[in-house]
Design a protein that fits this description.
The chain is built from ten helices and eight strands. The longest helix has 24 residues. The radius of gyration is 22 Å and the shape is elongated. The chain has two domains: about 150 residues, Arc Repressor Mutant, subunit A (Orthogonal Bundle), CATH 1.10.10; about 70 residues, Ferrous iron transport protein A (FeoA) (SH3 type barrels), CATH 2.30.30.90. It has a six-stranded antiparallel beta sheet with strand order 3-8-4-5-6-7. The chain has a two-stranded antiparallel ribbon with strand order 1-2. By secondary structure, it is α+β, with helices and mostly antiparallel strands.
Amino acid sequence: MHPEFQAQPQDEILEQIWCRREDGDATLSGLLDSAEEENAGELVTTLEQQQLLRLVDDRVELTRAGEVRARTIIRGHRLAKRLLFDVLELPAEETEKTACLMEHVLGPAAADAVCSFLGHPPRCPEGREIPAGPCCKERDERLLRPLVVPLHEMKRGRSGRIVFMTPRYQKRFDRLGLFGVVPGSTIRLRQTQPSVVIEIEGTSLALDRDVAREIYVRRES
């Protein structure tokens, strides 16, 4: 078992404390009433012993260490949801289920990579705020654009490397592969109207806009 999963029950409590605080309820009684974990009380005691939270009467407060851990969990969970829902287009239920697993192993470096990939999204699909990371602070807000975009959204004349493709039909994928249009290839966008024209290895290739929407490119800086 991955060591991070051993702390999963405690992480779930920290996550609930954070979310309930966002909703304006930081009470211990409210936390215990809503927690799905049958041993929520024991988990709270363990977290208190680990100095990740403190109890003040009926109020639950995260310590500095607890705040850092909870922030990491929340950031990983909500970034994972954006990735799974927006890019992989998974159903909401599957997105939530998978994000709950990913949050426990998505470390700060991986979370920053996902965040940059998505263009530093401020909120998750449900509208809750995604805590900012170092990658967000290093760039001016006006320049926060996704690193990976559908081909047709690139600026004309720009080059990029194909990261992944989502063709609806296998024959379409195979045909593109014959021209070298595969993940890892570098292409240049020459034209966007009336069709999308790319250049790959010195050869120009015209694509339907529907096809261009299925090709995701990491723009070169």
